[in-house]
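Hi L.,

You mentioned the student needs an example of a multi-chain input paired with its predicted structure. This one should do, with 485 residues in total across all chains.
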Amino acid sequence: MTNPLETFGFDSTHCFIGGQWQAPINGETLELTNPSTGEPLCAIARGTADDIDAAVAAAQTALQTGWGRATALQRGRLLSRLGQLVLDNVDELAMLEALDVGKPLKQARADAIALARYCEFYAGAADKVHGETLPYLEGYTAYTMREPHGVTGHIVPWNYPMQIIGRSVGAALTMGNACVLKPAEEACLTALAFAELASQAGLPTGALNVVPGLGDEAGSALSSHVGVNHISFTGSVATGGRVQSAAAKWVIPVTLELGGKSAQVVFDDADMEAALPFLVNAGIQNAGQTCSASSRLLIQRGAYDALLHRLAERYSTLQVGSAIQDLDLGPLISARQKEIVSGYIQRGNDLQKVAEGVMHEEAGNGHFVVPTLFADVPPDHVLAQEEIFGPVQVVIPFDDEDDALSIANGTPYGLVASVWTNDGARQFRMAKSLRAGQVFINNYGAGGGVELPFGGVGKSGHGREKGFEALYGFSALKTVAVSHG
Ligand code: NAD
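Structure written out for the whole complex:
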């Protein structure tokens, strides 16, 4: 059997710069760990500021040459070819992601398909981004047009590398930007595979460059680089603040996709059978390491006991095991993440722990944590306020709409929310009043589809990715006024 790490033919200790695979300038490497076993997986490049300089220079050259001259139609066709290559390699990409991130194979496969969908969506959108003609003074014609920012920097976390690369790099390329991607030091193999596939698709030299490395080396070099014209950052609130400060030095626009403490709000009149799988799955997907995880379940008192019972039943069947065992949950990304999440579970000792999942007997030495459900949690409890980034959900009772809104909106975050009710007027009232970048009624899309603009308010960040909104974010609007008498 082929070694999954060798499927795509790149050397994992190399960066991809200017269309070439090359060792980082200092020649140093970092070790990736397989989260399912705790064992070393492979070495990756430890890129630094020197490699970021080279990548930014390659991107600038691309803008002056082939890539800068590509028409919208040509960019769309390239993305279309890239999407097809991703689809042709879904199983191989899923295997890499499963080994690297620890997510169960079926989830990794869904991420690979989502990456292809981003390419497909943006391929179709590339030649459909229009300007407007504007009524102006007598004797003038005024219009707007959208132009690429130039070099865009993409700093990506470890939890959904393929999806996040698809939504940010995919949209940036569509608008004609040249990208420098800094994947996470914990998981970067599918970023490298994506670069290889982009090269096979015929993406011009320098249009996409990938420099793996540490956050405070390669990441901070990218976010503070004078040659970068836009930064897209996905990650923690603390790092997002640092990236924004660094970019402020050169007054570079920044999109921040940060954390969340998203709530699902279930009213007494909801269809409980329909809600149940969403309530659990949106909390435990990717072992809860999802920015849009629904970590808070707000249930109206009339339905509370019955639904809690059903939730507990479902929880006690959830199985945890290695990515390859492909159960409900895989391991957490690292020993450190396991320690943080276990610490939160400890801090719930004063709460009612109603259920937990099952550790598969062959789970081994990976970074495993069983999913844990707490009930009757006071809305101001640390477990109901802080992003845990692990498979922990809290259940909170509420009385009425006002109470639900005050609890749902009562954290510093505002990423995603959902409402389960069959009362149509209430659906609209709640959608209007919930403080979140996305609201789902009688469903919950963790992160939503590729078509749906996504992003947060408050500490969940600012700017929007996905859908056409991303294309506006990854371009600058120019207004032209022609005086022709
Ligand atoms: P993190 O902020 O530690 O790291 C994210 C990325 O930033 C990594 O590539 C890292 O190397 C880089 N980085 C670290 N320090 C840096 C610095 N000083 N300058 C520039 N780059 C730096 O986040 P994490 O722990 O890897 O990811 C988890 C967080 O990401 C959670 O809070 C989660 O909610 C958030 N997240 C948000 C979304 C979203 O779309 N809103 C999606 C996924 C994850």
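You could point out the following to them. Residues 155-160, 182, 184-185, 215-216, 219-220, 223, 234-236, 239, 242-243, 257-260, 291, 387, 389, 461 surround nicotinamide-adenine-dinucleotide (CB under 6 Å). The chain is about 40% helix and 20% strand.

Best wishes,
N.
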